[in-house]
Amino acid sequence: MSSDERFDDLEAELRALAGSLDVPAPPPERVAAAVRARLAEPRPARRRRERWRVARWQVARWQVVAAVLVALVAVTAATPQGRQAVTAILRYAGIELRLGGETPAPVPAPAPLPGEREVPAGEVAGQVAFPVRTLTALGEPERVTVSDGGRVVSMFWPDGIRLDQFDGRMEPFFFKRLGAPFPEETEVDGVGGFWLRGSHPLGHITRENGEAVPLRQAGPTLIWQSGEVGHRLEGAPSMARAVELAGSLR
Amino acid sequence: MESVTPMDDAEAIARSLEGDLSAYEVLVARYSALAHRTAVLFGARDEAEDVVQEAFVKAFRHLASFRRESEFRPWLLRIVANETHNLTRARGRRAELTVRLSATAEVKAPDDPEGAAVATDRRARLLEAVRALPERERRAVLCRYFLQLSEAETAQVLGWPVGTVKSRTYRGLARLREEAGHELG
After folding, report:
1. How many angstroms separate the CA of residue B57 from the nearest CA in chain A?
2. What ipTM is given for this predicted complex?
3. Pairing mode, strands A221-226 and A191-196
4. What is the DSSP string of B133-183?
């Protein structure tokens, strides 16, 4: 469509314009050497260079997350103002948790994920950029959808059980607003995860401008990250059952 | 950096995965200018060099998730675009297109100085019109024409379906024609 004949000249003009832009780049060899030097550095030193990042919690930072969480619970329990505003944001496994004192108002009307469409289970792998797995303990899902140009795969089983797998490498994708009770930490196959007990508003963070779009009221959810992939498992009746199901991911 | 037979991307990636940093240096040097251009066009300004280094470091760390049968270039540029997005978002500013026409870019036509001046002016106005596009359309146009990526590559870099790339490019072109005046194109 963009090569619509009516735009041939304009397209040629844009390409010519691109060639006359002033974009001085550092010498490639210098960039290569700098990158190599950083890769050879020990990782903690590298982290300090990420100056613009507010907080990016990843698996290796798990202990820090847990410590922050404990401190947060302690602070919010101790101070009256801690019970009001959003007190902290945790970012983990592609999910941004906005923790506040009051339980936030529920999302009234549910909305689908952007570009969500149903796909045959066998065709999922070709449509997303990460390895997709399934909860073997539950057998074949009833339904599988792919959303947001292949960033999210959702699988649905009876009794409201739902597994979302998403590209956990990039900026947070989902956000959740939580009041008390605060998330509990747990382990899934040796990596840290959070169990969110109560029902809570779930939203989606658009990549375009970081805008947060409410999606629906989510049930109890387990979140964890495995490799590059973030996971949220919703609808299990207890943390123990959620962890057990999560452990069957293959 | 140079060897007798230049390493192709697939070989450089395979060797990087084995921890060969020299092989990765070849990839960095190969895509450094394009990565830098991407960061600048998407609004990294004077922090483009940091963004590019960060993107290459991150790409190395995530190389195991790169699918061998796909192209390295759009995969890398997606990381660059995301890093730039993180930066502009953290800085609380819009991803504005701040590039200028280079001083040497004036259209040269010794026999027709007036025509040359008109052509140079036209380029400046077209750049202004690109700058003024709505963000999504601008990103599509930047990828397709300023970075010369295919529709499929653009889709991968921006994380959009190909149909969305087509429609946003089309709308962008239509708007550019409208805004930049009828004598364009």
Report:
1. 6
2. 0.87
3. antiparallel
4. S-HHHHHHHIIIIIS---HHHHHHHHT--HHHHHHHHHHHHHHHHHHS-TT
Q: Which of A29, A38, A149 sits opposite B53 (nearest CB)?
A: A38
Of A54-58, A127-131, A178-182, which has the strongest mean pLDDT? A127-131
Structure tokens at A15: 């390409």
**Angle, alpha carbons B121-B125-B130 (nearest 5°):** 145
Nearest CB to B57 within list A18, A46, A207: A46
Identify the helix (H) or strand (E) that includes residue B132: none
Over A116-169, what HEC string results? Answer: CEECCHHHCHHHCCCCCCCEHHHCCCCEEEEEHHHCEEEEEECCCEEEEEEECC
Pick out chain B residues at pLDDT < 70. 1-5, 103-110, 181-185
**A227: chain B residues, CB-CB within 8 Å:** 65
Contacts of A28 in chain B (CB under 8 A): 28-30, 32-33
Instruction: Give percent above pLDDT 70 in chain A.
Output: 63
Output the six-digit token pair for B84: 């730039």
pTM attached to this predicted model: 0.53
Residue with tokens 């993107």: B55
Residue B100 in contact with partner chain A when CB distance is under 8 A: yes
**Cα B8 from chain centroid (whole Å):** 21
* Residues of chain A contacting residue B173, judged by C-beta atoms under 8 Å apart: 2, 4, 7, 10-11
Q: How far separated are the first and last CA of chain B, in Å rounded?
A: 43
> CB distance A1–B159 less than 8 Å?
no
Is some CB atom of chain A closer than 8 A to the CB atom of B55? no
The residues facing A155 across adjacent strands are A144, A163
Quote the Cα angle for B15-B20-B24, to 5°: 80
Taken in order of first residue, the domains within chain B and their CATH numbers are 9-90 (1.10.1740.10), 103-179 (1.10.10.10)
Binned at pLDDT 50, 70 and 90, residue A89 comes out as low
Q: Considering CB atoms only, which of B36, B145, B161 is closest to A15? A: B145
Residue A240 has pLDDT above 60, yes or no: yes
Q: Where are the domains of chain A?
A: 59-246
At B4 the pLDDT is 56
